[in-house]
Amino acid sequence: MTDDLKSCVEFHGHICPGLIYGYRVAKEAMKLMNLNRSVDEEVVAICENDSCAVDALQVMLGTVAGKGNLIIKNFGKNAYTVLSRFKRQGLQIFPQDALRLHG
Ligand SMILES: [Zn+2]
Q1: Please, are residues 82 and 93 in contact by the beta-carbon 8 Å criterion?
Q2: Which residue in 13, 37, 47, 62 has the most C-beta neighbors within 10 A?
């Protein structure tokens, strides 16, 4: 297990498919958008559910409720949008792993 995945498990409390999915979403967004973990509020995550996956996005992307850069729109959909305020780019990730890069 990689150190960053270990950090997700420690934060979340257990390892589960949802956490792994969120970890993969975050890693893919970081790769495709060339992002680092958000120190301040430069990266924003919009999550369309409140599942285990959201915790992995918080750890990996630094998108957390306290900084206001984690937005949960609980539509019960397995969909995530990652935005970069600096790059003015957005990436939407849907259940079929279809990726749409905007910006
Ligand atoms: Zn879980």
Answers
A1: yes
A2: 47
